[in-house]
Amino acid sequence: MTSSRPTLRAPLALAVALAVSLGLVGCQPGSYTTTAEAPAAAGARAPLSEIDWLEDPRAYVGTSTALLETNALEPLEPALSQSLPVTVESDELSGQLSLTISSTDRVLALDMSGSLAATVWALGFGDRLIGRDISTTFPGVEHLPVVTGSGHAISPESVLALRPDLIITDGTIGPIDVVLQLRDAGIPVVFVRVAPGLSQPAELARRVAQIFGAPEAGALLAQRVTADIADVTGVIAARAPQAREDKLRMVFLYLRGANGIYYLFGEESGAGELITALGGIDIATEIGWVGLRPMTDEALIAANPDLILVMTGGLESVGGVEDLVVLKPALGLTRAGAHLRFVDMADSQVLSFGPRTALVIDALARAIYAPEQ
Description:
This protein is an alpha/beta fold. The chain has 14 helices and twelve strands.
């Protein structure tokens, strides 16, 4: 069964629109053979509740990098049984499409942040993965061939060579016509589009588990990730500044220096929920920005953030914070720019909203409120 080539519909179109507008889908393929290395990890450390937090986070000067304690993913144990075939709904851009899945022995789970493969792994079906996208870098997948390039463009030849019996994606790798051609070639393709935010990890767990014919596993993983997120956000709520005037005003800035791309993330990107979970004030939500906005000097100065969240790769693409402030002098007119108050985190982690979301929030909280520990 094939699908038409429809137009984008809100709100699930945001991730696709983001990828297209930032040049991440449909660009040059890049390398499909280079091994994507896992981001650095911090290693064992004291619980977030036991470390010393800054007395006045708004007064701190300097940059910091958020690191996960570990890149490893803990799968459910024991792995629960499957019941196939199963009929699932694929989130096509034109609407829902019913598909019957009869085999999950050879699976590709592909998206821009690696969240789908991480969810498959956490559900206990990691041994079914036969390839990976460039953002899937957690321990255990190093040997898998990479089928998307540096621009998240898929290599159809690489996919066909792996003989998958199932592709799970969310539309953020492409071009979309290439993905649909793989379906036309006889490979079942299921689109799973979940709005980004703190509820996404649990919903992904349930949706992906359904595709595997293992709804009990999905319920268990959803329960686990929800509890983990509640634990870490509870600590932050108790320890972060309580008065509104003391809270950090934050914004998420997307950078790609080589292409001259500077975007502010607004509502529907998930950045607002992340900032709120971190005990901050999301300026984009406060102002009413939706989607993503090109960064203008006027908008940035008017927002006047205390702290700016960025992706590590994006920051490196502009030469670091000091070079960024030179490139964009308006940044220096904000509190964040004057204090060089930027917190960066690996591109594949910071807005991934997968099974490690609680660890992401924990890492960001440390970089924001205890940067020198």
